[in-house]
Amino acid sequence: MNAAAKDENTVIWFFKAGLAYLVVTLVLGALMITGKGYSIFGPQGAKAAHIHAGVLGFVTNIIIGSMYQIVPTMTGTRLYGGRLASKQFYLFNLGVLGLFLAQLTLTGTLRTGFQTIFGITILFASILFAFIVFKTIAESRSKIKPVSLLFFKAATIFLIAGETLGILTVIFPKVFSNMLLAKTAHAHLGILGFITMTIFGAEYQMFPMLTLKKLKSEQWAKINFWTFTVGVAGFFLGLMLTSGLLMAVFAALLVVSTLLFLVNMWQTIQGVKWAGLDVSVKYLLAGQGFLFLTVGAGMLMTLPGRLSTYSWVWTHTHLGLLGFVLLTIIGAMYHLVPMLVWMEKYGPKMGKEKVPNIQDLFSKRLAHIILYASLISILGMASGMLLGNPVVLQASGITMAATATVFTIDMFRVMK
Asked: Could you tell me if 319 and 382 are in contact, meaning their C-beta atoms sit under 8 angstroms apart?
């Protein structure tokens, strides 16, 4: 097996691990909304394990694998470190699995100790990931520096900062007890600083390529990068200092920056009909729509009154994580996974024998069914949360878990 094929295999490992955690996350979530998850594992254990299985196990595994594929492609060089990426895979997933099990099954001092050990393991693996990405970018042979690389570098820094803060809040709970929003700051560094920054960077690369359109404005993309980076840093500072003024100012900057991203994307495909779009682009557009709803819900939560209640907080969170993040990742995987499999299995046979097209490796019909089932499920969950209707919430959550399981099985079938 040549070096390039080994790199592609490492990417596939990350994808498989991420998809496994996706099913675990949504099944645990479905158990929680029926009440069984809380009764089995306890309210705090189930909630923490559910969140970290989703954000670290699913999303971060997929992002790391995607960056290991996209960054070398964009820089025109090999992934730095050879087998270092595969070692990072094992280290990272050892930490994630250990953290998940500790949060799900342990309590008290024992839980704190193991959370610390596995949290540090994840942090070391993430530092290694950042090192590989930065070194790969540094060895670029291309004179063109895509704006996406700026987003990726900033995202890895926010990832490490968020994980460091998370570990510190576990080790020194008394120190952070007076910082009421420290855990919220930890969450926003991960979701805004790492995940959203990565998605923005990836979409600036993938969206024009998949739509066969030139990006509306490269300059807008650069403005988006700087305003969003400053917005995340400032909002984090506001949360740590519990400063309403700082939070308001930088939240407004984040909203403006996000809207600039959305306008740039939507102007890029102006005039293109939905039916003519690649299925991956349909997922990306659906994710962008939910991003808009997430921003809107966040803005409404700043108003006084009932809109800042628990149900609104979780509606806002799930619109972002399921609607924006999950649908975007599914769309990206419908592009990346078949491409990687085709390159490994059929690339060497090109010109020697008949080979299938990349899109022949998966079912477009099933991809569309998963998309529309996901849209209905996510909107149903949001409605159930806002209306306080447990029947709608439970039915939608179970449907979402089943839909994600079907998607996972389809991806494993393609990767076999």
From this structure: yes
Q: In what helix (H) or strand (E) does residue 245 lie, and over which residues does it extend?
A: helix 244-268
Q: How far apart are CA 58 and CA 48, in angstroms?
A: 14
∠ CA 331-220-266 to the nearest 5 degrees? 40
Give the 3-state secondary structure of residue 303: coil
Q: How many Cα atoms are found within 13 Å in the side-chain-facing hemisphere of 151?
A: 27
DSSP letter assigned to residue 326: I
| Beta-ladder partners of 350 | 353
Which residues have a Cβ under 8 Å from the Cβ of 286 and sit 6 or more positions away?
Answer: 323, 327, 331, 371, 374, 375
* Best CA proximity match to 192, nearest among 155, 163, 165, 167: 155
3-class DSSP state for residue 350? strand
Place of tokens 């682009």: 281
Model pLDDT for residues 98-140, shown as the tens digit of each residue = 999 999 988 889 999 999 999 999 999 999 999 999 999 999 8
pTM score: 0.94
**DSSP β-bridge partners for residue 353:** 350
CB contact at 8 A, 96 and 128: no
State which H helix or E strand residue 242 sits in.
Answer: none
The predicted pLDDT at position 185 comes to 92
Using an 8 Å Cβ cutoff, are 337 and 415 in contact? yes
**Mean pLDDT rounded to a whole number for the chain:** 90
